Protein: Integrase catalytic domain-containing protein
Amino acid sequence: MQKLMTQLQDLLDKGFICPSISPWGAPVLFVKKKDGSFRMCIDYRELNKVTIMPFGLTNAPAAFMVLMNREKLYAKFSKCVFWLRVQFLGHVVNSSGISVDPSKVETVMKWSPPKTRKGFDVIWVIVDRLTKSAHFLPIRESYSSDKMAEIYEELGTKLLLSTSYHSQTDGLSERIIQTLEDMLRACIIDFGGSWDDYLPLADFSYNNSYHSSIGMPPYEMFYGRKCQTPVCWGEVGQ
Structure:
């Protein structure tokens, strides 16, 4: 109980939960983690069985309506935006059904084309499955396979083909691409310009960051230590 109260108080202080006087409850158990601490787990399975979405627990919506009617408390729908139009996850829910939020459509239509000043419109992401390193190359969608091979050879890399299928590779690539999108978006918002201006920065930042799967940054695996930019050099001769 002491551990439970400690964790609940922490969640209350962070604003993740709030006090409730509901007669309904769910069992709580603690699972020991690798570091010796305990993770609080709540079993909602039985509670979910008596829950009617989206209104709440069984008979609770009906009891609420009876109470409102008895006290003669009525809602004027012309003043209740919730009942008329609800925005949820980029969609609008109203009496006509579910549709895409028009404001989201307008935002997409106003997006500037990804063509850069230098004519690049695609980012080629090359991932090394062993070291988890990645290279981000600005290219054009119209490049031929010969042009792609030429760019690849300029990196000084060798292509080792494999017939085995590695499903985890696809997940790794997706995470890297998402990380790259976030970095480029942040750079453009803060500094402006084209995304190809920041690819070298994103390349260095990604490969010089810690990766839990290898226990170090990819650059450290290559060079024996983390790389440093000129603004981070601490000693003469580095």
Remarks:
- The first strand starts at residue 28 and ends at 32.
- The mean pLDDT is 77.
- Residues 81-111 form one domain.
